[in-house]
Amino acid sequence: MKLLEAVSLNKRYGMERRWFTPGVRGVQAVNNLSFSLESGETLGLVGESGCGKSTLARLLLGLEKPSSGRVLYRSEDYTDWSFSKMRTIRNRMQMVFQNSLASFNPLFTVEQIIGEPLRNYGERKAQTLRVMVEDTLERVGLERQHIHRYPHELSGGQQQRVGIARAIALRPELIICDEPFSSLDVTLRKQMMDLLQELKRELGLSYIFITHDLSVVNRFCDSVAVMYQGGIVERQTGEHIMQHADHPHTRRLLSAVPVQDPRLRGHRISREKEYRE
Fold first, then answer.
1. Which Pfam families does UniProt cross-reference here (predicted)?
2. Helix (H, G, I), strand (E, B), or coil: what is residue 215?
């Protein structure tokens, strides 16, 4: 069953007209984009910086309105819903940010950060909130002692775990992860991927995983959609894309993936020459 669907989605940002400046057409951030996400699926959204990935995430979450097109959640069109009406489905769609620390209120403790969405959706009893926050912390691999800490007292990996805990606190169906591992080292990155996979199995989650690193989505995602200039130019399984990429832009992205085995680097150089030709 389709959980989320975008139909002919467009987003254009106009630019302010200034004196002695000719008419400006604006910036087309998302260009006639369509895709669907099945319930329980993990979709990797890959593309270079500035291709429209984060703009698409904001459109899907209803944080911005598209210039044209539609967005549907379980076949219900919520494109033009008001802020108050969006609250009826907002708890089912959450986001994990690239820089969790920047998304936290620095004056909030971990308990307040994770408890805020719960309070926003009606849970007022302090004791019940504490139990729910502690349970959520345990799910993401943190101990109860972290509940009184402030964001700056946490390591980078712990901050990212708190960001994930906040996202799952309301037991959503969909989580959009916007470059969640880019600031982490290789070891922490693997730990976070394992954690998200475990949460998917336990809670029945669906993911949209935004990144520019094809090597990550190949191991983590059921399918991969490649964005270029605001649109999706290719969508395949990760294995197919890594071995038989169809679009030239996808092949260029693949050529930027680091190769650990020195014996394979010469092969990639020859492939890069082939792509340019």
1. ABC_tran
2. helix
